[in-house]
Amino acid sequence: MYAIVEISGKQYKVQEGDIVFVDRLEELEEGKSVTFDKVLFVSDGQKVSIGEDTVKGAKVKATVIGHGKSKKVLVFKYKAKKNERKMKGHRQPYTKLQIEKITVTASRAKKAETEEAEKTVKATKKAEKVEKA
Predict the structure, then answer these.
(1) What is the mean pLDDT of residues 50-63?
(2) Looking at residues 1-9, what average pLDDT do you find?
(3) Could you tell me the residue ranges of all domains in the chain?
(4) Which helix (H) or strand (E) holds 64?
(5) Are 69 and 94 a contacting pair, CB within 8 Å?
(6) Listed residue (71, 74, 68) closest to 89, CA to CA
(7) CB pairs under 8 A, 24+ apart, for 44-48?
(8) How many angstroms separate the CA atoms of 40 and 13, rounded?
(9) pLDDT, tens digit, 9 for 90 and up, residues 107-118
(10) Which of the two residues, 124 and 13, has the higher pLDDT score?
C-alpha cells in the first residue's frame, strides 16, 4: 500500500515503513507522532482511491526521527577578467520522518459498496420495466 501525501506544500510518495526527508517542521519534536490528512492518492495494489482535492478519510501517521541539515551546496559566482569572485554555501534544514501507518476509513469503502448496490438495483428495475412493456 502506498500513498501520495502533501507535506508543507510538497508531494511525497510514501509506503509504510519508509523514511522520508521533508522540509523542516519546526513545531514537531523528536519521538512525537504526527498525522497528515492531506492525502491525494491511495493505492493498495488492486484498489485505487483518488480524491477530488484529497481522499476523504485517508490519513498517514508518521513519527519524527530527528531534525538535521543536508549537505552543503556551494554557489560560486565570478565575473571573468575582473577578479571578482563570491562563494556562498547553503545547508537546507530537514525533518526525518518514519511512516508508520496509512489508513483509509471503512466508511468510504462502505459508501462505495452501497453506491454499487444501488446501481445494480436500478439496473434490474429498468430491465424489469423493459420486460413488462
Answers:
(1) 91
(2) 94
(3) 2-104
(4) strand 58-69
(5) yes
(6) 74
(7) 44/1, 45/1
(8) 10
(9) 544 555 566 666
(10) 13
Looking at the DSSP bridge assignments, the partners of residue 78 are: 85
Give the list of residues 6+ apart from residue 75 with CB closer than 8 angstroms, or none.
87, 88, 89, 90
Cβ atoms within 10 A of the Cβ of 84, count? 9
Instruction: Collapse the DSSP code of 72 into the 3-class scheme (helix H, G, I; strand E, B; otherwise coil) and give the result.
Output: coil
Which grid cell sits at 82? 575582473
Residues 6+ apart with CB under 8 A from 54: 6, 37, 38, 39, 40
**What's the grid cell of residue 73?**
551546496
Where do the H-state alpha helices sit in the chain? 106-132
Cell of 14: 510514501
Whole-structure pTM value = 0.71
